[in-house]
Each structure stands twice: as C-alpha cells, then as structure tokens.
Amino acid sequence: MKRLMDLLLAVPLFVCLLPAMAVVAVLVRTRLGSPVLFKQHRPGQHGKPFQMMKFRTMTDARDCSGQLLPDSVRLTPFGKWLRKVSLDELPQLWNVIRGDLSLVGPRPLLMDYLPLYTEEQARRHEVKPGITGWAQINGRNAISWEEKFALDLWYVQHRSLRLDVGILLLSVRKVFRSEGIQNGNHATMPVFKGSVKGLER
User: Fold this and answer.
1) What is the CA radius of gyration of the chain?
2) What pLDDT, on the 0 to 100 scale, is given for residue 129?
C-alpha cells in the first residue's frame, strides 16, 4: 500500500511540476553553471546504495590546494533560496517513481556515515528512505544528530499509512514556513562523526 501511495502521488506531481522543474533547471544553469543536477550515491533500504538527485545549490569553488571550500562559502544566495522553498528536492520525485525513495521515510544521508551508526541508529535503514520524514517535520536541520536519529527510529517503530499522510501534510506547512533549514550558524547539518556510543564500539 505504501508503494501504491507513493506512485499515486509522485507520478502526477512529477508530471504537473515538469514546467517548474524546467524553469529551475534553466536558472541553475544560468546562475551556477553545469551540471544542473547534483547526483550522489546515498544508502537506501538495508543500506543498498542508489543515486539520489537534487538541483545543484552550490558552486565548485576550491582553495589553492584544490580542496572544496566549506558549504557556507559555496552555497549561493540563489542556492539558499532553492533550499528554503525546497525546490532543490523536486528531482527526487523521479527517485520515488524508480523505487529508490519513498515520499516519507528517514532522509538518506551519506554512505560514509554507515560504519559510524550504533546498532540502534542503523535501524533507520530498515525502511526505504524518504523525501520527507518524521525528523523533517520535527526540526529538520535545526536539531542535533542524536535527536534526528531518535525521531527516525520512532518512525521506523510506528510507521503507518495514516502517519505518512500526516507527515506529508505537515511537510507542506513546514515548506511554506521555511522552518528548520539551518543548524545554528551552519548552512547545512554539521558532518556526523559518530555518537559517543558509536565511538565506543
């Protein structure tokens, strides 16, 4: 039923939003250059990697040694606006149609984080990751990693279609209010380096 709901919502949304995505693609190409899409392998259900797509929001600016500059430097005002209104996430509807993502589930993080999770935190991969989730409507980037993982685990334990519908409705409200975009002074979430329990393993 969850997969059916994903397709019934994602397919018409993708078709209806194609003109908007075309406009965003042109703006990204004009203001940030190519590639227009940011593609990165992320862990899906059971940790199986898939290629997640987003509209690009950062430049490729590097220091004199060739290292990428911090996110806060590379994230342009235009990129911040795309993130604020969540337009950068629109290509992920295609990931939902393909079956890589669900509309609702724990957000897919970096592959590098997989060995850093505690056994309990790793349970977030028991379900398919999502475009939005319980953690996103309860703080998004404005909460700590530990709080985020606790919310993800709560979702895994209590997931239902009714809960998914509620999360989707609340997500729309969060987008319009632009809540939880930043974490303190960070443009994005700080790098996860493992919890205390994870470091003790």
Assistant:
1) 17
2) 97
**Does the reported pTM lie above 0.70?**
yes
Q: What's the distance, CA 191 to chain centroid?
A: 14
Counting Cα atoms < 13 Å in the Cβ hemisphere of 189 gives: 18
Domain boundaries defined on the chain: 2-200
Res 171 pLDDT > 80? yes
If one counts every other C-beta atom within 10 angstroms of the C-beta of residue 14, the result is: 17
CA quadruple 171, 173, 174, 178: dihedral sign: positive
Distances (CA, A) of 165 to 20, 73, 134, 160: 24, 37, 11, 9
